[in-house]
Amino acid sequence: MAPPPAHPQRSPSPSQPSGKSEVTDLRSQLRQLAGSRAPGADDAKRDLFKKVISNMTIGIDVSSLFGEMVMCSATSDIVLKKMCYLYVGNYAKVNPDLALLTINFLQRDCKDDDPMIRGLALRSLCSLRVANLVEYLVGPLGSGLKDNNSYVRTVAVIGVVKLYHISASTCLDADFPATLKHLMLNDPDTQVVANCLSALQEIWTLESTSSEEAAKERETLVSKPVIYYLLNRIKEFSEWAQCLVLELVAKYIPSDNSEIFDIMNLLEDRLQHANGAVVLATSKVFLHLTLSMADVHQQVYERIKAPLLTQVSAGSPEQSYAVLSHLHLLVMRAPYIFSSDYKHFYCQYNEPSYVKKLKLEMLTAVANESNTYDIVTELCEYAANVDIPIARESIRAVGKIALQQYDVNAIVDRLLQFLEMEKDYVTCEALTNTKLESSSMQVLVKDLLRKYPQWSQDCIAVVGNISSKNVQEPKAKAALIWMLGEYSQDMPDAPYVLESLVENWDEEHSAEVRLHLLTAVMKCFFKRAPETQKALGAALAAGLADFHQDVHDRALFYYRLLQYKVSVAESVVNPPKQAVSVFADSQSSEIKDRIFDEFNSLSVIYQKPSYMFTDKEHRGTLEFSDELANLSINAEAGDSAVPAQRVEANDNDLLLSITEKEEGRDAASNGSAYSAPSYDGASATSAASQSLADLAFSSTSGSGQAPASSFAIDDLLGLDFSVGAAATPSPPPLSLNPKAVLDPGTFQQKWRQLPLSLSEDFSLSPQGVAALATSNALLRHMQSHSIHCIASGGQSPNFKFFFFAQKAESASIYLVELLINSSSAKSQIKIKADDQSTSQAFSTLFQSALSKFGTA
Amino acid sequence: MISQLFVLSQRGDNIVFRDYRRDVHKASAETFFRKVKFWNDDGEEDAPPVFNVDGVNYFHVKVAGLLFVATNRVNVSPSLVLELLQRIARLIKDYLGVLNEDSLRKNFVLVYELLDEVIDFGYAQTTSTELLKSYIFNEPIMIDSAVMPPLGAASIFVKGNKRMPSTVITKSVVANEPGGRKREEIFVDVIEKISVTFNSSGYILTSEIDGTIQMKSYLTGNPEIRLALNEDLSIGRSDYASSTAVILDDCNFHESVHLDSFDTDRTLSLVPPEGEFPVMNYRMTQPFKPPFRINALLEETGPLKAEVIIKVCADFNPSINANTVLVQMPVPKFTNRVNFELDRESVGNTTDFKEANKRLEWSIKKVVGGAEHTLRAKLTFSQELLGNIMKEAGPVSMTFDIPMYHASRLQVKYLQIAKKSKAHNPYRWVRYVTQANSYVARL
């Protein structure tokens, strides 16, 4: 079972004194030494402190020694000081009263002559994390930020973030963010600059959920002056700080192509960096900058290929896995670019299975006419592998490649060889694959027929042993039985084999196999009725008597069908089959795009977008104003929403929106694969609407009327602004409950139950479209009109929102689905209402509220 | 952004545990270890280096039998965290001389000092061995390296080459030598890991060399160093390169390396930071002469019997030896007994049949260049084989170290240290080693 926990206090062994007595022991020794100035006292203290920290590490609670530790800390010995700081940082939070004791000496140390002591003390002071001590922090932090030593400044900058987490208001009141911004743009030390950037990103990201201003400040980080300032110094930064800067640059939207090329030229040599994180961050910049230039984008793939491959083969297995996952993503997006590099994706026998699995998928993806033979030969070697899961995956990969229909003959031969291998798992996979094959190859009937004699022989050989232990896996057996039914006209023995299987009905433990058997017998019956009649009768009888519900039901269903009309039964059980060309991809293209947007992050490793594995409050700076793009239930809408529910709701929402999304994309892409849409979440709408947004921001402040210049731009972009500043419909006498509450589950349930009462299309004002670029702005705006958002999602230019509202002094609820296409400024609402008679009035209200969006 | 960082022993004990942001629960180390140990039911698969449990991301790297683990809750670059963990392990090694459980336990206070400076509130600060020196005050407690099993790539030099002072690999950058003076020296190691796959007829299917030029400097005063490589070295696929030229597919360099004259005379200049670091990583798929040829034969000799013959030929200069050669081969799963037969002159050979995972193991302590070794093994099966025996056994895989051998022919032509004075003449060591990464012959 579980490994023994590393907590001695839970399982005190005779050789190790229990934590408690040791702590008492330490306390008395510390007391003895506290006031001692004897020579050697410091050494004795060091040993004692070490013991305390060692106990702390293994999880023994030594917080009760706090007082004694602080008493001993009056020392000039820096090693002692550091150990004491470490201890205090760990336990101050649980001892807020005693922590006050430390403030004194920490504050004194913050003024020490030695910059190192100042830095250390300041770091410890900020790490106390005791809310009632924040007043003591502001002074030392303020002077730390101005310290002439860069070490103290780096510590102070991070100290500001720590303070923000203890007390955001204190941090903001002291105007620290502004100080950091100044430091970021002026400090000579690059580590100070990097820390300022981290700190500001963290603070403004957290603030932006409640403050418009913070959101704007955060946007300025990706403005041209800041980006260029950082880029020009990029080589002075440490490699870790370079990653930070590059991550920011990837969010920057250059104004024109020459800017893009300038940035890429500047960063070209970062691809030769030994640190994989730098190389990946640079790759992300390149990939994202060139999204709108299909040909250059492809060149980027070619350019980053070699450095990434080098990263995969250098470094530890863990590092190479991280890079390989990214390469995997690129291969999946553009297999043709990697088709000549397939040998790099061959598995090595000593690689961990998580690496092998990725490689197998990559091999499958890059297979084409010219390399299929080599790849399949290689994959067949893995099928004999001692590593069973990988052997399975390999055969599955062969099957998938076969479905792509290159060199099918060779592959079928290989699959048939597997059948001879007498390894259970191999047979299973091979059978399942041959099943896929045969369904895929209906188009290639000739090939199929030519293969038949040999094939059926093989099958019969296996079937001969079916009662023995050779094919035990239910899946294999099911596949085999499926084939018997499907191709019974070509296998002379089929009815008899099936019959013997039916005779052994009771010995078959897997319901899945019994289900398949029922169907196979039915199919066989329609093809060779006289021979199968007996078996069918027996199978139906056994099925009806079966204790398994599904088997019973299916038998009954077949029985009734046959009773009704044999021809109908045949058309149900044995319909003309369509060829399986390619199996449905497990992931939607939307999810894949989202993962690509989050290149160089955990999303790539987990192969899912970040909203699926992070809590909302922990979405870090990576997602950067991504709230709109993330399909997320609005937190304020339903406090009761548990995470699981949330995910489920997200998924459903996602499913709902895929089709519209695809349509939108097709319309927008105009032949080039990577045109404007889907840049980086909502912060970056397409370049056009971004510049529009900038204009609108600058021009609409204050007045509700956009100046003529912005209209001209709107006109150029073909936006219909007639609704914009025109007279807005006056709100009808329908009032809503401003504090309406609805949880997501109920919303979904209602949305499914209620009929559509109203659906309208209308245009959005250009200001409204522009304001969409600011995350959550629409949600806040609508909320001020007592219409609450429950879920939002989509990616520029297509956004989707779900709102709800409640009629004042009534339980009547309105549900709204709002679709907005920001490039055409068109929107559509669908309203469902408890009280259908008022839905027109509500619609007017909704539209009037929406028309004011962006003009306020 | 990192929330916690901890180092676990192989048994899952916390040796060092640092909580930076306190947004991950305290029992994370326990959760992590259980997850890694029982990744799936049959324990056959390794846990991936990054995984998520209940919203917490766990990153880990294995170094010297220790698990370096980071946790967090936000979406970050996995590469960054893993690189950082690896770097922290290297930093600790630079400071402690030896990195293992024992040295870490003895020096955990020093390690805490390092961790405090390397990461602040989850953000990476500096990882430069040199810069950190001024912030580290604990003296490392050296452990007796003689009794410790040697670790890592560098350890091969101890075994392989008597001329090397064995203390070098275990020397801390901060500890003083007995005698008070530090020895001025610099080590440049060219480490090449080769992967070769032979098909059943001995033809090479794939081959690759992954090389690193690693440097470890104990020079004072940061002198500039020039490192000259082969002049006929070319990078990227060029069509007109002569057959003798060394053609690298790609390479990358450490930050400190200046490539100003690299294009003209293949010289790297750098001011080496202290501690161990890779100057250059390179990758080569150009065909090269594999150091070993492997012939393997498997024949059914009766209904319940088969014979395996494995022949290994060392295809390199007799002045060079390969060390710790290990040949392995999986055999059919019904094998229950194996009788080995070795050449008469094969001293230092051991053979073993690992019953649990049905594998032959043949280890040869030393293989002299040009030598040929043969192993015969008679297999007995408990059951008759139904299928093709060739599909049930193999492939033959091999691991080895060959000091003073460089498969790629990439060379350090000279190593020049900018002299401060005439008396200043530091020791310079340039060493080569070729190791098997994946060296496989199929049946």
UniProtKB/TrEMBL annotation, chain A:
Keywords: Membrane, Protein transport, Transport. It comes from the Eukaryota. SUPFAM superfamilies: ARM repeat, Subdomain of clathrin and coatomer appendage domain. Residues 734-851 form the Beta-adaptin appendage C-terminal subdomain domain. The keyword Protein transport applies. Adaptor protein complexes are heterotetramers composed of two large adaptins (beta-type subunit and alpha-type or delta-type or epsilon-type or gamma-type subunit), a medium adaptin (mu-type subunit) and a small adaptin (sigma-type subunit). This is Beta-adaptin-like protein. It comes from Arachis hypogaea (Peanut).
